[in-house]
């Protein structure tokens, strides 16, 4: 088992905010950071020791990252699988490439979740629109058709209320094969972030409740307002999936909670997740610190919640009003990711608020008027 120590270099593929927060956490312990990203001034590049500016699938750039890094991780799943697989042969990539192959394709991902013994919504897969037309009866309407590859934040999916709307899904096949799944009238969305070390031991952050607006995460509330039985089922399912995938590092498991308290797994992300950002202030170990421990072969710590927490995302349109609120909101921990342009709906940062009463925090967020 390889142990990576402070002074050694962690290479990160991808220079966004997740890489930045991984890097900041690793630098606290004295690691050095190398990052590969096409942007000159990426959020991670701003805090890294070594910047390699090139496309993610540039073989020569990956080789350079391998040369300067003692361990390599990634901050997003849409990287070139074949390139990553070759990289695992010349560099230490403890998470491996297989988890990327699976999670960048909804068809492979759903099969893996099912094979792990965890519950998913009824679905069919279709390589072509004709196949979808043929098989859609197996799930019925309403349903959600999603591209197998490349979708995020609600992009690459359509909801079909009834059969007459089926033609609306045809254009999705221009991108990739698709899955059609039953529309789930869920009560709540939750997520579990599970992290597993090179010794096979895993730890979960507390179960998170997630509120989306326009398919983008808006708020995360911890603890989630679910029964103990639901929280337990969620953690059990995350454990089954992590073991089945031989996880090393981080896996975020997004789930629906139904009216009867049962859960269905929606999707997986093999990296720290927006719904875990609250852990920086609210837990005894953050998802970023734990990720670094996991890939560096350190024993994992059991995350405990210091206080109830709410995280609210800052999109482009929220940045200016939040900066204006700094003088009157001493309890808001403000995180900005160093992105130059505050475009509408672009994730620019987040705010975390710890308080004994999350209902009170949610009311204050609403009253601030910033997120209306
Ligand atoms: P996804 O890209 O799969 O995470 O989907 C984005 C969002 O669409 C989810 O967070 C849900 O709010 C909604 N959604 C996705 N799949 C379904 C479904 N089968 N039934 C109802 N809502 C869904």
Automatic annotation (TrEMBL):
Highest taxon of source:
Bacteria
- Classification via Gene3D superfamilies: 3.40.50.20, ATP-grasp fold, A domain (3.30.1490.20), ATP-grasp fold, B domain (3.30.470.20)
A GO cellular component entry from the record: cytosol
Q: Which UniProt keywords apply?
A: ATP-binding, Ligase, Nucleotide-binding, Purine biosynthesis
Q: Which GO terms describe its biological process?
A: 'de novo' IMP biosynthetic process
Note whether Nucleotide-binding occurs among the keywords.
Answer: yes
Task: Tell me the protein family, please.
Answer: Belongs to the PurK/PurT family.
- Function per UniProt: Catalyzes the ATP-dependent conversion of 5-aminoimidazole ribonucleotide (AIR) and HCO(3)(-) to N5-carboxyaminoimidazole ribonucleotide (N5-CAIR). Catalyzes the ATP-dependent conversion of 5-aminoimidazole ribonucleotide (AIR) and HCO(3)- to N5-carboxyaminoimidazole ribonucleotide (N5-CAIR).
Q: How does it assemble?
A: Homodimer.
Output this protein's name. Answer: N5-carboxyaminoimidazole ribonucleotide synthase
> What organism is listed for this UniProt entry?
Bhargavaea cecembensis DSE10
Taxonomic path: Bacteria, Bacillati, Bacillota, Bacilli, Bacillales
